[in-house]
Design goal:
mainly alpha; 426 residues; 4 strands; 16 helices
């Protein structure tokens, strides 16, 4: 393999991904805008034209922003690679960190430094999304102070967790020879499982307040549902999601005995008891149909495959040269190699998204079916319809865009699969 071939393959893949993503977004914009003027017949009696048009306008605004994001992310990737950004940072740290602190510290600094710079480069887009788009459509509850606090806490947390993990991985790469990727997989897999226990108890409370479910009647009702479904949890909690967004949600988090049920306070404000029970039964369906386990195994398999590919690529000097990095002959180039592999993995994601999105949509249908078995189908339909309206989810997405990007079925498909038609009007 020579550097020119690597560069050529990278450019072809980069352009293909860029054009595909732009094409998908453009299709979604045109399709939603074209159907903005009329509520789909299936929803004519339950969704107002004003609500339908608001959802269409919100979708179009987000997709137009996505076009800008795609261009910006592509420019950043080219800047890191072919324009020499990573090579410049690598050279700086080789000169300033390596002579004083050694190989391991240099590698950790490169991984953490590149991650920090990439995050900072994304801040303007994140701010625009929050304070322009979400604000315009009435979803944003964030203040600038809270936004900056999230950036600071997230950065410090990333450093506190990421730096030790990076050090362990780089040490394994130097100490275990050609089998480093297997040892690294074992460490990262263990870390992923550990985070399932640590996150709900120690990390999530750094960003939100969690309180026991205060509504006694609802608590009893939910506990009965959990008992009927054979599900045990550490507790029922309400999260103050409203301090950041008006979007509503509910979810399970944790692993083993650390599982807990979390309701957004916005969800409790928008749904009645039957609807909340139906939504919770849907989430229970993901556990009882082993979707969580399936997703975990897929994640671990993807991680193992990625590490195996990384083990092959990082030993090839042409791999670095073809992507704008001059490998140093005196030190290991493991950190730079890992960064390049991760960025290439991000490019490859779009090509497997139709399969992953299809699997996710199928699991949503299965969870809905489970909810109908253990609750009222009409209540689930009513809840879904309210959430589609309150979250301004378009009722007319582009079918091709759905295949690539929708982890949940569109409204018409999802409601059509339920035994009963929705009874609640919005």
């Amino acid at each position: 393999m020579n550097p020119f071939a690597v560069t050529g393959l990278f450019v072809v893949a980069f352009v293909a991904v860029l054009l595909l993503r732009l094409w998908l977004c453009s299709r979604q914009i045109r399709h939603v805008a074209r159907h903005r003027g009329e509520v789909p017949p299936r929803f004519a009696g339950t969704v107002s034209l004003a609500a339908h048009q608001r959802a269409a306008d919100y979708t179009v605004a987000r997709q137009r922003f996505e076009l800008v994001s795609i261009g910006w992310q592509g420019a950043v990737l080219i800047g890191w690679t072919l324009l020499g950004g990573l090579n410049a940072l690598n050279s700086l740290l080789l000169a300033q960190v390596y002579p004083h602190w050694g190989d391991l510290a240099y590698g950790v600094a490169l991984l953490m430094g590149a991650s920090l710079i990439s995050s900072v480069l994304d801040w303007p887009l994140e701010a625009w999304r929050t304070f322009r788009i979400e604000q315009t459509f009435g979803f944003n509850r964030m203040t600038w102070g809270l936004w900056w606090r999230d950036r600071l806490v997230g950065g410090l947390l990333g450093l506190a967790v990421g730096a030790p993990i990076a050090a362990i991985v780089l040490w394994l790469m130097g100490a275990t020879g050609g089998t480093w990727w297997l040892w690294t997989f074992a460490v990262l897999a263990g870390f992923m499982l550990l985070m399932q226990v640590v996150y709900p108890t120690w990390i999530a409370p750094l960003f939100n307040r969690f309180q026991p479910l205060p509504d006694e009647a609802l608590r009893i009702r939910v506990e009965r549902l959990l008992q009927r479904c054979g599900f045990q949890s550490q507790g029922l909690f309400v999260m103050d999601g409203s301090k950041r967004s008006a979007h509503a949600n509910a979810y399970f988090t944790g692993f083993g005995r650390s599982k807990r049920v979390v309701f957004f306070d916005t969800l409790l404000q928008k749904l009645d008891g039957d609807e909340i029970e139906a939504v919770l039964a849907h989430e229970l369906g993901h556990f009882r149909r082993h979707h969580v386990r399936t997703r975990l195994f897929i994640g671990l398999g993807t991680l193992l495959a990625g590490l195996a590919i990384a083990a092959w690529l990082i030993q090839l000097p042409a791999f670095y040269l073809g992507l704008g990095v001059v490998p140093n002959l005196l030190v290991a180039n493991h950190a730079a190699g890992l960064l390049l592999v991760m960025w290439l993995g991000g490019l490859a994601g779009i090509f497997i998204s139709p399969w992953s999105a299809s699997l996710s949509r199928r699991q949503e249908f299965e969870a809905d079916a489970y909810a109908c078995e253990h609750g009222q189908a009409s209540a689930l339909a009513s809840a879904l319809l309210k959430l589609f309206a309150d979250n301004a989810s378009t009722l007319t997405p582009d079918p091709v865009y759905v295949r690539f990007m929708y982890s949940h079925p569109p409204a018409d498909q999802r409601l059509a699969a339920l035994p009963l038609q929705p009874a609640a009007a919005t």
